[in-house]
Amino acid sequence: MAIRFRRVSRLCDPTNKEAGKKVYPVISYQYDTSATLDEFAKEIASASGVSEGETISVLKDFRTLLRKTLLGGRSVNIAGLGYFYLSAQSKGTEKAEEFTIANISGLRICFRANSDIRLFTGTTTRSDGLKFKDLDHINDSGSIGDGSDDGVKLRIRMVVRVVMVKHRIRQLDS
């Protein structure tokens, strides 16, 4: 399993346009598609012996109850999975007295993974097979090919891009 990333240059201090820039990684998901509820239901059903329909129903009920509980003012801590909570989005004010409900522009559901599923870049995770693939330098350090033939590298990059574009077109058509 390889975690794909690209390099992105950002300001060190976003509030100061004169501040220097640093390069940070941004995770790139394979084919830019998320796993669906149906895919999860199929996997859970095949592993647990529960029907796919029942699994979908339970997952949808979980989603409904999670939203209801969060909007009811409680956080949700699922042992072995993680902690769900709300955070507010707003424009800040200079003084606490100036802040009103009108400043709140939205709510965001946040998730903090439990240590059982949290990914670390330390030695334990790397030994479990976690690798990083730098998409800006996909052929460097032997990720694909040995980097000895620039023509081969270019063809591989072009094929990968064509496959990704075709996949995205299929998604848009459906």
Describe the structure.
By secondary structure, this protein is α+β, with helices and mostly antiparallel strands. Helix content is 35%, strand content 25%. It contains 4 helices and 6 strands. A hairpin with a 3-residue loop joins strand 3 and strand 4. Helix 1 (37-48) packs across helix 2 (52-71).
Low-pLDDT stretches: 141-152
**What fraction, in percent, of the residue positions are helical?**
25-40%
Mean pLDDT: 77
How are strands sequenced across the largest beta sheet? 2-1-6
Q: List the total number of helices.
A: 4
Distance from first to last alpha carbon? 28 Å
Query: What proportion of the residues form beta strands (DSSP E)?
Result: 15-25%
Shape: extended
Q: Which structural class is indicated by helix and strand composition?
A: alpha+beta
Number of strands: 6
C-alpha-based Rg, rounded: 22 Å
Please specify the SSE layout and strand pairing:
Layout: E1 2-11, E2 21-27, H1 37-48, H2 52-71, E3 76-78, E4 82-90, E5 104-113, H3 123-127, E6 131-134, H4 150-173
Parallel strand pairs: 1-6
Antiparallel strand pairs: 1-2, 3-4, 4-5
Helix pairs in contact: 1-2
